[in-house]
Amino acid sequence: QSSLGKSLVQNAPAEQGCAETVCKIIQKVIPNFPTLLHTADLNVYLSKDIRFRATRESGPGKIIISPTKAETGHVGFFLPNGRIASNDSRTGIFEDNYALSNWVDSFRTKKGLPIYYYELI
To answer: Which of 31, 70, 81, 84 could form a disulfide with 76 if both were Cys (CB 3.0 to 4.6 A apart)?
Structure first.
């Protein structure tokens, strides 16, 4: 939550900065975590990194990702209140942007993207 209201984007344009932002937040806990600029690359990395596990449930601190190589994918973190914080594509600021139902509607229903959850173990 300490990253809310800040821009952590350095390498990607703000409208593509969600993967970079999530990587920068993970690096606060795992300093050697790479900086990835696409949600598809981040999803592959998380699925293979033994420090993370895929889960079927949302929860505080878990990562939610709808991956794609295009700009239509997105990634964020669940907040303690059940909402999702992610990089705002218009501003590059990491904010409380979604309820889970809005995420599902935006990325699964409208864009046909999968939704994955990961947790740090």
So the answer is: 84
